[in-house]
Amino acid sequence: MTKIISSYKTIASPGRGILAIDESNATCGKRLASIGLDNTETNRQGLVPLPGSNNESWCQGLDGLASRSTEYYKQGARFAKWRTVVSIPCGPSALAVKEAAWGLARYAAISQDNGLVPIVEPEILLDGDHPIERTLEVAEKVWSEVFFYLAENNVVLEGILLKPSMASPETIAKYTLTMLKRRVPPAVPGIMFLSGGQSEVEATLNLNAMNQAPNPWHVSFSYARALQNTVLKTWQGRPENTEAAQKSLLVRAKANSLAQLGKYSAEGESEEAKKGMFVKGYTY
Ligand code: 13P
Fold it and tell me: Is pLDDT above 50 for 45?
């Protein structure tokens, strides 16, 4: 456990976050398709339909996870991530919420047992026309079940990172922080948000807003889309654009590092960085 705690400390420290490039092959394909490139790999794992639910999904992969984790640890991995989604327009059904929470908790226990810091990612999808109060209600339900089952599985909270979605892009600081404070124990060292389809600038501004006052946890980012978009558009798959693409990644990394410190201003951001990436009914 000491090793696990020293692993998370490398991330949950001032100005630091995560560049998430751990998408499934299918999701990588969508990103590459956005700049006209092919992805020839086939996707085999991840979210699959949840029988008995309201057209919802569950995340498979627990079978054999312990032996895979041992192998990944030997290869140098110190973190793992398990992402599962909850859809508000689909209900969510009690079954889907329980399955999501239980799966995350089993995965977290297995990861810790094998020396890996589990990043626990219950994503509440942005889809739907419901009011913010409904998002609040669902998020509180999901997070409370997640923490209930984490405790039941004897997961050490000091050795996990939570990766939630933001409640609402417009009123982010108020709603998201209120909800998190109600449900996430301060023993959790870090909350590393996903970007969920917000524009790069929105995701960074929202993170900045949440770091205007001290929080019980390290509040930072683990963005994929909100760190990759400008980079992909700049790169276009052409070797001559590699350097410019790397520079644009550093611009985003710096912006989010400043947002983690609560010192970001959106001044001088490009038009591309302001473009939203939300896709209705997005499947990963
Ligand atoms: P987004 O930041 O694009 O929502 O992705 C987060 C993630 O978990 C990627 O694997």
Answer: no
Which one of 45, 202, 225 would you pick to mutate in the ligand 1 pocket, going by the greatest count of ligand atoms within 8 A of its CB? 225
d(CA 245, CA 234): 5
The single-letter code of the amino acid at 271 is E
| Rounded distance between C-alpha atoms, residue 102 and residue 153, angstroms | 9
Minimum-distance ligand 1 atom for the alpha carbon of 277: 3
pLDDT value of residue 41: 44
Q: Which residue has the higher pLDDT, 272 or 189?
A: 189
- The verdict on whether 163 is a catalytic residue reads yes
Q: Whose CA is nearest to atom 5 of ligand 1?
A: 224
Rg (CA), the chain: 18
| One-letter-per-residue 3-state SS of 40-57 | CCCCCCCEEECCCCCCCE
Q: State pTM to two decimals.
A: 0.86
